Amino acid sequence: MPSWKKIIVSGSNASLNQISASGGFKGDGSAITNVSFDNIASKPTLFSGSGQFATDVSGSWQGYITGSGIVSSSVASSPSQGTIRLSTNGVNTDVDSGLQTGDSPTFAGLTSTGNVVVQGTLTAETYVVSSSITTMSIAQSSGSTIFGDTPADDTHQFTGSLTVTSSALTIDSSGTVSGSSTSTGSFGVIEVGGGHFTSASLAAGGSGGGGVSSYTDLTNVPVGIVSGSSQIATQISGSFTSTSASLVTITDSLETASGSFSTRVTTIEGSGTTQGVGQSDNVTFNSITTTGPDTFGGNVTITGNLNLQGSQSAAETLVIADQFGFFASGSESTNVDAGILVQSGSSAMTGSALYNDIAVDANKNPNGGRWSVAKNVKADDVGVTPTAYVGTVTVGGDTTEPDSDDVKYGVGEMYITSDGEIFIYTGS
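Given the sequence above, the corresponding structure tokens read:
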């Protein structure tokens, strides 16, 4: 079990095995818990529990003791529907609530979560059905029925067959009728799928009489359609001419270098880009290889990667714009100690190192890869023994004390809970 030690600061909740204080303790002790009653000095005689209650007080009663010292007890019950019984000290008093089976109560409102059975006549000034009716049985009776009161808003749907037995059927308002029917009648206008048909157009075989017979009657025709030779002749004009004699002369003369032409060639053309090769020109190459040593007197800008294959490189001032400097590249197969080495002392190429130590230690570096420091490290050393370790702080997301899962680096690391309690790891 990893050992995390709590650092007691002002406001901490400490859990200690023992406390010794030569000057005593101050405070009212209201926050002290888990203190044995037997260990409390100068305690008064107290009524402490059921055992003492059974010894010192005997007998039994129901109810409670009032401020006047009278023992009282009351129980309310309902022996039958509509009757409330109040039993006070054994005396029963029945009260009629007005809800007997023969009563006719009046309520401002009534909500039933179960079924309601009416054995008599149900009379309602307004009858509202909040859900669809699937089954309805009606006793035979004469009369009229009206559904709805607003023609524009009320909709009545029937699923199944509708049989109307009457001498006349009247539809007072206009509407859309869909479906199939076998009937004989007359229509002034028929609209189907956006088409407008009259008796004349139907007789002629289409909307307006006869349908579309001309290309010009089509709508939404794509632009740019070539329809015939006449359109080509109209929209494509011009003619091809033979090669100019003067152009032939010029191209033929370029086959042999002339003095005037050669003196005017000042640049070399490559892959579509004209490059100047003079000392003052800016030249762009896809890649460049030198056999060196090379000296650049001005600034050098490299937009790609710079790969140094030599063992050493030196710069009077090194400015890196990258957010991170990446060291020990390529060591993913074999991990190595790596970090920053600063010249320190009189020995050349020797100094103090801040580095990532890979050596695993059960307490100091249980997971490997802990930041460490060391002295007298040579530039060509491949392994380093740490002089000390860098202290780290983990901020927890809750008030739970740290455990083995919270050990990230090793001995000396700190852990702070969300409520400000501080712990330091001292080893497993």
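The radius of gyration is 52 Å. Try to locate this feature in the token string yourself.
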